Amino acid sequence: MDRIDAVLAAMPATRAEIMAKTGLTKGAVQNAVEKLHAARWCYVSGWRREKRNNTGTFVQRLSAGPGKDRACTLKPLTQKERDDMRQARLVKSGDIEERRRGNLMRYYEQRAKSRKNDWLGPLR
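-> structure tokens emitted (124 positions)
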């Protein structure tokens, strides 16, 4: 029962935070949370997005004690929001400039090849 006590002591937290606080494996935390939830010793007190910049999947925030599970009210990101975040990340890291330079180089190489082939075409 010491695992269950450790999980209860780590709450309120998400499953990943419980793993970090207690040092238990993912499976051990999952089993303990399932048993606690079935016995109504813990409940879902809220929801949040998993990854950085609030772009990941939804995860439950668990709290100890009896309570009513809260329904998820988070909305999924639209494609435009995801595209804007990706563009901002590429600009910030400098990758967008590197890609632009690479694309320009490929364009000029292809252009030079096609002009060379056009000029030498009849001599072959």
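The CA atoms of residues 11 and 63 lie 5 Å apart.
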